[in-house]
User: What shape does this take?
Amino acid sequence: MYRTSVLWLCTLLWSVGLAVTPIPSRSPEKNNNVDCTGPIAFTSTGSTSVHSTGLVAYKQNIVNLAVTWDREVGVYTCACSGLHQFSFSGSTEENTRMVLKKRLNNGKQWTPIIATKPSGGSATILLEVESGDQVAVYLDGNSKKFNARHGQDIDVTSFSGYRIAK
Assistant: This one.
């Protein structure tokens, strides 16, 4: 009983910490050498897990020209300010939506920007993002899982972003 309570408490505290603490990039040494004159883009597909907070992680990178995109965590941390385009899609359980959220540099709260209808879909948006801001896709609803694959064994979740102007 005691071990279960301690494990539960640790999980809860970790979830709260994840929700209020900006997620640092896993590659800080790369962040100092970001070339803001070149292309900044990423596309990842296939959701392997959804964190307890609803934050979506991705299975594979198709393109990763953004050193501050972490597909395993599911968070893009902006290294070069500018106008970005973000697109995401997925097939979710009933009454569950995908929501693109943004957290300002050193902010504590994730702000919803745009969402799909319940059961999933897709959305694309242009968004001003400053250095240090974070952008991620969350699942919001009763279920924290995707209808991850369709009949032909093809991934149906994706998240893409790229900077289109400084």
DSSP finds two helices and twelve strands in the chain. The first helix runs from residue 2 to 20. The mean pLDDT is 83.
